[in-house]
Fold Pentatricopeptide repeat-containing protein.
Amino acid sequence: MLAPTTRAPRWTSQRRVLELHLSELHKCGDLDRLKQIQAQVYKSHLHRDPFVVPKLVSAYSLCGRLPGALSAFHQVPSPNTLLYNTLIRACAHGSRSRSLAFDAFFDMRRSEVFPDNFTYPFLLKACLGPSALSQVEMVHAHVVKLGFLCDIFVPNALIDAYSKNGGLGLVAAKKMFDGMPERDTVSWNTVIAGLVRAGDVKEARQMFDRMPERDTVTWNTLLDAHAKAGEMDEAFELFERMPERNVVSWSSVVSGYCKKGDMEMARLLFDKMPTKNLVSWTIMISGYAEKGLAKEALSLFDQMENSGLEPDVATIVSILAACAESGLLALGKRITSYVGRNKLMRTTHVCNSLIDMYAKCGCLDIACDLFEGMVERDLVSWNSMLQGFAMHGHGEKALDIFFRMKREGIRPDGVTFLGVLCACTHVGFIEEARKYFASMERDYGIVPQIEHYGCMIDLLGRGGLLKEAFDLTKSMPWEPNAIIWGSLLGACRVHNNVEFAEEAVNELIKVEPSDAGNYAILSNIYAAAGRWDGMSKARVQMKGTGAQKPAGSSWIELGDVVHEFTVGDRTHPESDRIFMMLDRIGEHLKKAGYFPRAYS
DNA sequence: ATAGGGTTAG
């Protein structure tokens, strides 16, 4: 028998309605709606209600408005465990507010509000960055002291947090896993994911084979690991063997074949997918875009829209990155017009991707207009613009950007200095470059990475300061890589220095023995110096390694067709006319007094 | 009554 309906007191039903509205916000994330509801909360005097406020806090967090979450939190004079937990989760969510999660936690402890088993998984999400490992260790100690290891969610979250901290963290994660009295599928999946992240696909696979019960996530993790490692035979074998496939499984194989460049196979599987979501479309479109296949990418983008799916920020950013990589301006412009029609797309992130894409495609004027038109510029915006100018040889403009960002109080990072040093190279500012390089760590606390050394070495070498360039190479805290030896070698060629060149090329061959270009360069250097003995030695050396030099290529986009050219290639339909034009240009150059170097 | 961990696009 059902009990007769009892009428709840008016204030209770009002609160129920508000709670319901607030939990609906979890899905849509509508900020205006949230503000309306918050006004209702105030009007009903529920802004201190211990069950309503947590919902407000998480709704604000889901809308990406941490200040709103914080102010809702601060309305409550003495927050309880639930409210603190929601706040910690809200802070852990954003990338800039992670330290606030710990502030909230310490505040919670000071107020003698007791953490529970829900507190720690949230707090562990906030452990990222340089001091993450010690943070995880601290949380681990708390957990042990308060005895929350018995809730399997907590050790699982610990495994995840530990495993995100490199080799040392992975050791701790495995130790945690081994010490658990009981493990569930998530425990296994988390260690396996950690191993994959660390690049140890082999051990991940061993654990996968040892696992008592695998779910779709387990299969997907390993499938994707193989796909990302370029091992598509293994990936496809797992894909066929797995008992159940979902969108993620299909997306992973499609993505794997795209990365391998096997677009036919990728497309075949993409067409066979039982259900496609925004992610799968993004993978396929970006795959085409990255390969410069404009027609396919454009037509697929239209098909996606026709199927009723709205691209989101991630889709747009991903496609734009692919366009930037291949120089696919046509699709980039199509995306730009899409962004222009959608107010939701006017985010800093999207704008940054547009600037990067236009800059890399050589349209610096458009990139510049976009940059100047931005209302809110973040570090990435400044870096993209700076890098864009530097990359295309506009050293002064790049440095102007650097001075402007300093004036506006933006803290530069390592990427900024990479752009600055690159700009100095283009304008031959050796003295300035030395100054900036020295100021990185001293004034900004940025430890120069091997890329920064590479820039400096390149710059000194180009300037003819070969001795200084070699000295810097040897004083680096790392073993020089192929890029560094290569740029030293380039400098030796320009400045006709055979002694240094011999050393550089021998080192280059040590780190990159299968690149035939290196032997060719060595041989050319001997030839130029009239040392025929050395020349034939280099030729023999190359034969011995079976090295092959992949042909370099250049390409240009006209309309929406990308024309690609390689050395000696005569497959282009207009080939004869192109070579005729090249000859004419060559004549003009000679008349203007330019003679190509004998060896380059 | 209340909220939580692992995989895929960036």
Summary: The radius of gyration of chain A is 29 Å.
